[in-house]
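To close the section, here is one more complete example, presented without commentary so you can practise reading it yourself. The ligand is sodium ion.
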Amino acid sequence: MFIINWIHRLAWLIREAAFLLSLAGGVVLVGSMLTVLADIAARTLFGMTLGAINLTFRGSYEIVRYGLLLSILYALPYALKDGQVIVELFTERLPERIKYWISGFYILFFGLFGFILTSGLLNSIERAARSGQTTQDLGIPMAYIYWLAMVGTVMLGIRGFSVAWEYFTGTETESS
Amino acid sequence: MSAQLIGFLCIAGMLGMIALRMPIAMAMAATGFIGFGLISAFDPALTILQRSAMSTLTSYSFSPIPMFILMGVLASKARMSAELFHGAKSLFGAWRGGMALAAVSSCGVFSAISGSSLATAASMSKVALPEMRARGYADSLSTGTIAAGGTLGIMIPPSIALLLYALITEQSVGDMFIAGIVPGLIGLGLYLLTIAIVVAIKPSLATPGDPTTLKEKLVGLKGLVPFTGIFVLIIGGIYTGLFTPTEAASVGAFGALLIALYRGMRLREFVAAVRETLVISAMIFFMVIGAEIFGYFINVSRISFELVQIVNAMELTPLMVLMAILLLYLLLGMVMDSIAMLLLTVPVVFPLAMAAGLDPIWFGIITVITVELGLITPPIGMNVFVIKSVAPKDTKLTDIFKGVLPFVAADAVRLALIIAFPVLALGLIS
Amino acid sequence: QEVTLRLAHLWPEVSGNHQRVMQAWADQIEEESNGRIAVEVYPGGSLVPPPDQYDAVSDRIVDVTATVQGYTANRFPLTQIVELPGVSDSGAHGACILQSLYDEGHLDAEYEDTHPLFMFTHGPGMFHVVGTEIREPSDLQGLRIRRPTTVVGNILEELGAQAVGMPAPESYTAMQRGVIDGVALPWEATIGFRLAELVDSHTEIAGMYTLSFIMTMNRGVYESMSAENRAVIDANSGLDWAVLAGEVFDDLDQAGIDDAMANDRPINVIEGGTSHPDWAPAMERSLERYLSEVEERGLPAREVYDRAMELRNTCDA
Ligand code: NA
Ligand code: NA
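Output:
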C-alpha cells in the first residue's frame, strides 16, 4: 500500500513536470512568433532605407524550424492523454474498465516511443559531435539542439508509463 | 511474399487495430514500422522511428500550423471569431439552421487567411460548436458543418496544398492559387445549399434563430470589423511583399494577440490560450509524425506504383484515367493525410495524367479537392479529428462522420462541375 | 535477381537529372548485372526528404541516395571547398575537380559513414533579380537575395545586400510577394523552380559559387554484395558518371539561357568573373574566411584548396 501511494505521488509529480515543460514549449512558440515579426520589421526597414538602416539578422528561418521542434516536443508529454484520436465506433459498448485497460496498454507504447526517440537523439548527438555539424545560419552545433529535444522525448517516455499506470490502477481522475 | 501483398496485409491489420481503439497516430506508426521492417529490414525501420519526430517537427512548411491555431484560439478568446460568427448569424436571422449557414460562411471568410484546413476547422469549431450545441443543434450537423467548412480553406488562397502541388509538378504557384478561387467559392455556395437541404429534409437537426431586423443585420456586419482588420493586414502584407504566406501565420497570431490585449486579456488567459494551442497542435503532430513513419512503408510497398501500373495496362480514355486516379485518391484518402498524400502520389500519377493529355492546373485543382475530401471521410479524417479534439468530450466521432456525409455529396457535385466545365478552374488564368 | 537497391534522390521525376542520371544509372546497373541487381528509384524526395537523405543511406533506410552535402552544414567542410569562389567554371568542371579530390583521398575522412559512388556539382551559380539589374557591386546595395550557402551569404553581406536563408522551393513565393529581390542559383533552377517567369535580369560572375552533390551507397550493403555484383557497382562509380552528372546540369542550364533570350531579359556577364577588380575583394575575403574557419578545426583546408586549384587547370572546363 505504501508503495502504491508512493507511485501515485510520483505520477502526480510527473504530470506536474509535464505541465511545466509544456509551459516552456509555449514560451518557445511565442518566441518564434516574435522572431518572425522582428525579422519582418528589420528587413522592411532595410528595404525602405535602401539598406541604410541594417538591423537585419540571420537565422529567423532556423529559429522558426527549431522553435517548432521544441515547442511541439515539449507539449507532447503533457498532451499525451487528451491528444489521442481514437475510432470508437466498434468498441462503444465495452465496459469503461476495459476501455481504460486498452487505453493504458496503448499509452505504454507511447512511453516506449518516447525512449526510442531518445535513443535516436543519443545516436544523432554522437554523430553530430563527431562530424561537427551545425545549423546553417547561426552555426549552433546540432548536438545542443538534440540535447534540448531530448528533454521532451525523455519526458514523453516517463509520462507514457505514468499515464499507463494511472489507467491500469484506475487512479486516472483529472484529465491533464 | 511481394512487397505489395505485405503492404495490403499491413493496411488491413492497421484498420483492424484502429477499430480496436488504437490511437490513429500509433496505428500509423506501428504499421509503418512493421510494414517497413517486413519489406526491407527492422534495423532501418527502428531508425525511422528514432528519427521521425526530428525530421517532421523541423519541417518549415509545418510551422504555420501552431501559429494558425494560436491565432484561432486568441481570436476566440478575444471574441473575434465569435463576432465573425455572430455577425454572420444575424444575417441569417430567424432561418432554421441559420447558425450552420453562419458557421460555413465564417469558415469561408476564415479560409482567406488560412492556408490550412485544419486550422480553419480548429478555429471555427471553438466558436460555433458550443453555441450550436446550446441552441439544440444535433451534434452531427454542427460538427459536420465545420469539418466540411474547414476544407474550404484549401481552395481559397493562400493554400499549402495548392502550393505543394505547384512545386511538385513545376506549375506556377500564382496560377494554381488563382485557379482555386472559383472552385473555392463554388464549394462555399454548395455547402450553404447542402445545409438548407439537409435542414429542410430533417428540421429536427437544427433550430430556428432569433429574428433580426435590417438594422441588427447591419450591426452584425459591424462585428466583422476586427476580423477584417487582421484579414486586410495579412492579405495586404502578403500581396505587397511584406511577408510570405508562411510568415503570415505569425503576423496573424500577433495581430490577434494585439486585439486580445486591447480588449483586456490577462496574462493568465494568454497562458491558457498558448497551452490550448499546444495541446491541439500536439494532437495534430502526433498524427503527422505517425503519417511520416507510415509514409516510408507506403512508399517501399509500392502500392501506389502497382495501382498506377494496373490503370496503365487497361488503355483507358482520358476521362477514365482521371476517374481511376480519383478513385485511387478516395481509397488512399481513407487512410492518409492530405499533405502526405500529395507528396507521395502526385509525382507518380502526374505523368499518367499528362500522358492522358489532361491540363496540369485543372488536374491539380481536381486532385486537391479530392485529396481534401480525404480529410472528412472515414475512418481517418484529419478535420474530423481536429473537431473531435476541440468539441465537448461526449461528442462522438461517428456523429461527426455522419454529419459530414451530405457535404461529401456536395463535394462530389463540385468535382463533377469542375470536370465538366474546366473553365471554372482555368477561366481566371490569362 | 539477387539484390534490390532502393535509390532515393531529390529531383522531380520530370527533371533531366532524374531521367538522364538517376534513372540512367539504375538502368545501367540492371543491364550490366544481367538483372541480378534491381534498382528501385524514388524521385523527388518522396521516400526520404532531402535534409535526411545522407543519414538515411548511412542507416540503410535507403541503399543509395543522391543529395546535397551542404544540407547538413559543416559536416563536409573539405568537400565544400569546391563550392568556393574561383574554383569551378561549369558543372562538369566542378564535378571533375571534386571527384578527383575524392579519388586522391583528400576527402576520405568525411565519408566514413557511406560508400560514395560519385560526386558532382551544378553549373555556375549566379544572380537572378526582380526589378533591377546588377552590373556592379553597388547595385546589390539594399537588395534581399536568397543565398544558397553561407559562403555566398558572406559575399552578399560584404556587398551591402541582405542574405536571406530559405529553401530554394520557397523562393518562388517569396520573390512573387517581393519578400526577396532575387536569388543566387544556376540557370537551370530558374526553370526548375519557375523563377524565370518572375525575374527581370540575370548577372553571371563566372566562378562565383557552385553546389556539391553526392551519389552514395550504404557501406554494409555494398560490402555484402557478391564480388561480381560489386564489380558492376565499381564500374559505375567514379569520374565518368561524375562528369556526366555535371554535364547534364550544364545542358539543363541552356534551357534557362534560352528562356532569358527568348524573353529579351538582360544578361550581364561580369568580365573576368570573380577576379574582376570590383568584385574580387568580397570574393577573396569570403574565401579566406571559409578556409581559415575550416583550418581552425584542424583540417587541411588550404592543402585541399591548393589541390583543387591545380585540378582546376587539369580538368577540362
Ligand atoms: Na486558404
Ligand atoms: Na479520410
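Once you have examined the C-alpha cells, check your reading against these statements. The pocket of sodium ion (ligand 1) is lined by residues B 111, 114-115, 153, 156-159 (CB under 6 Å). The CA atoms of residues 39 and 245 of chain C lie 18 Å apart.
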